Amino acid sequence: MKNKFNTTFIKLFKRFFKQKILLMILIFVMLLVIAFQLSPPILIKIGIDKYIMKGNIIGLNFIVLILVCIYSLEFFLSFIETYITQKLSQQIMAELRSDLFKKIEKQNALFFDRHKVGELVSRLTSDISNLEQLFTTGFLDSFLKTVMIIVIVIILIVLNFKLAIVVIAVLPFVLMLFVGFSAIVMPLYRNLRVNTAKLSAFMRENITGMSVIQNFGKENAHQKQFNVVNEELSFNYRKIISYFALFFPAIEIASAVTVALVLLVGGKMILSSILTIGTLVAFIDYIDKLFSPLKELSERYNLFQSASASAERIFDLLEDQDNIVQEGRELFVNPKGHIEFKNVTFSYFQEPVLKTISFSIEPGEKVAFVGATGSGKSTVLKLLMRLYDLNEGEILIDHHKSDEYELGSLRRAFGWITQDPQIFTASVADNISLFNDNITLDEIKMAAKTTKADIFIEQFAEKYDHLLIERGENLSVGEKQLIAITRLVANRAKILLLDEATANIDVLTEKLINQNLEQLMKSMTTIVVAHRLATVKNVDRILVFDKGRIVEEGTHDELLKQKGVYHMLYKYQFKK
Amino acid sequence: MRLAKVRGFFHPIIAAFASLSVLVIFWIGGYFVIKKVITIGEFIAFNGTIGYLLMPTIFIGWIMSMLQRSRASLERIGEVIGEANVLRDINVDSGIKTLSGDIRIDNLSFSYNKEKEILSNFSLSIKSGEMVAIIGEVGVGKSTVINLMQRIYAPPKNSIFYDGNDVFRIPLEILHANINYVSQEPHIFSGSIRDNISYIDQVDTTLDAIIWAAKFADIAKDIESFPNAYDTLIGENGITLSGGQKQRIALARAIINRPKILMLDNVFSAVDTETEDNILQNLLQLKGHITTIIVAHRVSTLKHCDKIILLKEGMVLASGTHEELMHNKDYMDIYEKQI
To answer: Which residues in chain B show pLDDT less than 50?
Structure first.
């Protein structure tokens, strides 16, 4: 745990130090700010001793003038300091966010099965903003405060060694207080974090499952569970706050005692004329400046705790190699549409879903996959699209190992039509071209014309610039499907994958879509995953899947004659 | 970046006010000491006290800006708390302790927003123990009927009756205790499979009952193949279920206490026809004991239902048994298309 904590911070520091120049400027400005912040007490001391005590008004005015200059400069510099800090942290965070998003884009489907959308979104938003706080108020400000404490001690020693000893003698007690307090509060903060995570997980799960809870009338039971989690969190908060309520006054008392001691010792020294009044005033000022950073630092635990958790989560994600699909460098150009599986074995978890499967499909051929749920048909499509890596065997596309192709170019060759096509928040044109700049508007229009999607697109006021919203809620399922088909025409996909494409569609649109698909099938290699056998009669060849193996192969008529699995499935569906 | 500028500005301004007051005290105080208006001791006291005066003033500004931010949060919280309790009992007949499964829907018209009516003059009567299927295309109002029957949305008064009582007269607790519902994408809680199937009563349900329910939903074999069978964890710390497995576990969860009324909203969408048929066979066994309402896209397996309702645009296009509907053109269109 401790080790991981450290390595996480090291990684974080490495990112900060990438911005060397800006960081150096920042530290320089910070040191200047400290110098300006700590000089007024000395000036005031000089003012008191040299001018006020001696009745020199001109001298007093002179000191005031210098103070005005110093304050103005300090004001100006701290503005610059905050500005650079923010600029620097925003830059680093933007970079981190972009790295994270890039990483997420590279993950395979297994990753998205494991991670919930909300979780990933919070990685990119709240975790990052936690880190930003850690950087600004955490690292930089703590650094500033620590330097300040050290410089104050040095100044005190230089001003008057004897009196400084009094202050330094108190410091170990204060430090002990500080360390003791940390030792108590740190684990409490850790618990708090666990409690908070528990509470939000509970909320997430129960809100998504609300209809079930209501339907089964389990509101009271869940309310009780919630109260337990809620009370744990609240109890921990109260505990932490009560420790703070002890710690802050303790620091105040320590500060007051130190001032009293300094007054006692310093007063005697003034009486015996070995100390000036100005120095004593300066000492009191500095003691205040010495103790208040301690209070502020003690409030940082929470930040360090939650930020280190955030950092850990972010770097875990950034370094997660498990779910990344292997990718080659070769661009997949001019696809022909030849597919071959050689002894492919694959499992999502332990149990293999595909067991040494081999088959090949010629360019332009129409093949249907038939079999029960879980027999592995859909998995074959996912492997073709390279959403997962294989466990064993190889997949050849156009007689070339598919993992040697660059992923983007390979996937563009596939047109995957599913039940629920994805629509992005973007214009119709961008939804068709999929943001591919190489596809001109004319080509998009041509594609829409061939699929007859232009009929409904032309009805939008802004036509191809019409903005579609996420999930395409302003479109019917059929219209979404037409966009998806137009998409693959425009992108010149060569291999058509149909996965229950027309399950949720009204009859009229279904006809249009089927016409389109039949047209497309003429020029493309086609794989149809069929749950209903009625859709597979017109294909060239049928592969029958059973428990991860291909058990039969042939045309509809051939398979019926074999009187095997296909025959059974067929009879089963048609006996009704 | 603008945010950075604003923040960069705000903090120094507060600091500047603090500096200014120190300056003024020093200057005027020093002047007064020289002019012998105050003593050096008073000067030092002023110098020391100024901080106590200053900090609260700085904090006031800080508190004001915090108040602004909190007000927005408070309003959002208020919105949720102030939300009317839709699911509550008003004027119910507390004498109703159970339902028999007899359902009547009278001229039910409903729209989510005023624009488009989802259901218009929908009527249906189901006798206790009957098995009824509602079929039709996406968006014709099949799920809406199911939701209204459970009062998840509020139906118009005097449109839905259980045993002759308006749905609003029935205490929600009784209504929900007698109706078990499975949706197309059911939510499965993270935890063990056992806990999920015995969700209704996690304490007193026996393993035998759980296994019976799992067999009923044709998921028992799947469960037995999992590493810890019924104790296998699902969700964040456990295995991931397929859509079809989730649907079947949800079905097991809904059937385990043999409710009076079972509503299945397109729950076979991710299950293959063979499994679907097995489950329907099991459901048929309970015909006469459980009133079952099945919403479906596919028709092939619904032949044995007592009644099939064909919905189109919120209206009943045809209803009857499979045999009766064989003469209906719309029904046959769908039927033939799916074979």
So the answer is: 1-8, 339
Question: Does pLDDT of A6 surpass 70?
Answer: no
Q: What is the pLDDT of residue B189?
A: 84
What integer is the mean pLDDT of A196-210? 83
Cα distance between residue B184 and residue A378, in whole Å: 20
Segments of chain B assigned to CATH 3.40.50.300: 103-337
pLDDT tens sequence across B197-254: 888 777 777 888 888 888 888 888 788 877 778 888 887 666 777 777 888 888 899 8
State yes or no: pLDDT of A531 exceeds 70. Answer: no
Residues 420-449 of A with CB under 8 A from B: none
Please give the angle made by the CA atoms of A567, A571 and A575, to the nearest 5 degrees: 175
Kindly determine whether residue B173 and residue A217, on different chains, have CB atoms separated by under 8 Å: yes
Inter-chain CB proximity B16 and A217 less than 8 Å: no
pLDDT at B3: 45
- Shortest distance, CA A37 to any CA of chain B (angstroms): 10
- The dotted CATH code for B103-337 is 3.40.50.300
Contact residues on chain B for A477, CB-CB shorter than 8 A:
138
The domain spans of chain A are: 7-319, 339-574
Angle at A324 between CA A321 and CA A329, to 5 degrees: 115
Residue B180 to residue B263: CA distance in whole angstroms: 6
114-133 in A: which are within 8 Å (CB) of B?
Answer: 114
**A349 close contact with B: CB closer than 8 A:** yes
Pick one of 3.50.50.60, 3.40.720.10, 1.10.3730.10, 3.40.50.300 as the CATH number of A339-574: 3.40.50.300
Instruction: Classify residue B114 as exposed, middle or buried by CB count within 10 Å of its CB (0-12, 13-18, 19+).
Output: exposed
List the single best residue of A93, A215, A280, A378 to mutate versus B (max B Cβ within 10 A).
A215
| A480 contacts A472 by C-beta, under 8 angstroms | yes
* Predicted TM-score (pTM) above 0.95: no
| CA atoms of A381 and A562, how far apart (whole Å) | 26
Give the domain A7-319 fold.
ABC transporter transmembrane region fold (1.20.1560)
pLDDT tens digit string along A86-127?
Answer: 888 888 888 888 888 888 877 777 777 667 777 777 778 878
| Tens digit of each residue's pLDDT (9 = 90 or more) over A25-74 | 988 998 998 898 888 888 888 888 888 888 888 888 898 999 999 988 88
- Give me the interface pTM, i.e. the ipTM: 0.77
The partner residue sitting opposite B16, judged by closest CB among A75, A87, A214, is A75
Candidate from A40, A74, A373 with C-beta closest to B271: A373
Higher pLDDT, A250 or A448: A250
Q: What is the pLDDT of residues B70-81, one digit of tens each?
A: 888 888 888 888
Contact criterion met (CB < 8 Å) for B274 and A281? no
Answer yes or no: do B8 and A82 touch at CB < 8 A: yes
User: A214 and B87: CB-CB below 8 Å?
Assistant: yes
Which residues of chain A make contact with B137, given a CB cutoff of 8 A?
Answer: 506-507
